[in-house]
Write a structure and sequence with these properties.
This protein is mostly helical. It has 6 helices and no strands. The protein has one domain. Helix 2 packs antiparallel against helix 3, helix 3 packs antiparallel against helix 5 and helix 3 packs parallel to helix 6. The longest helix is centred in the C-terminal third of the chain and has 31 residues. The N terminus is likely disordered.
């Protein structure tokens, strides 16, 4: 794993409240492996229409990102986000960790729903998957950039 696992597990915030948050990236690694393997398996689906397959993969990716944010919310593992250290996460306390993670769940959950609706419309209208690729990329970029303003 990353960093000194034994020292991280015993970290207690300065106030001495014993607000323990185990430093572990195991869940993130499991999510990454499951996501990667499942997307690779999608290439074996008996779907010969590239437009449909691309839309399925994009929607699955959005759903997987949302699931990851939910996992981070439930387990309060906000230090998995870039820019938040483990020590900052522990010092913030449970309520602030949950609030921070919930903001991410809402943003990426909304992005997932928006793209799902758009992909259904573009699929029904037989619009090229290139349009979906552009739309998907913009939605993910907007979602990711919009979370940069969130403060712990």
């Amino acid at each position: 794993m990353i960093g000194d696992e034994s020292a991280a597990c015993t970290y207690i915030n300065e106030k001495g409240s014993g607000n323990m948050l185990k430093k572990s990236y195991l869940g993130f690694w499991i999510w990454t492996i499951v996501y990667t393997v499942s997307v690779m398996c999608m290439s074996y689906l008996p779907i010969h229409n590239t437009d449909i397959l691309i839309r399925i993969i994009f929607n699955y990716t959005n759903l997987a990102i949302t699931v990851l944010t939910i996992i981070m919310f439930i387990n309060e593992k906000i230090f998995w986000y870039n820019g938040i250290s483990y020590e900052e996460a522990v010092d913030a306390g449970s309520d602030r960790r949950k609030a921070y993670a919930l903001k991410h769940v809402k943003v990426f959950g909304s992005a997932t729903l928006i793209y799902l609706i758009i992909s259904l419309i573009t699929g029904l209208l037989n619009i090229s998957f290139w349009a979906d690729t552009l739309i998907y990329t913009l939605i993910i970029l907007i979602a990711a950039v919009s979370t940069m303003r969130f403060k712990l």
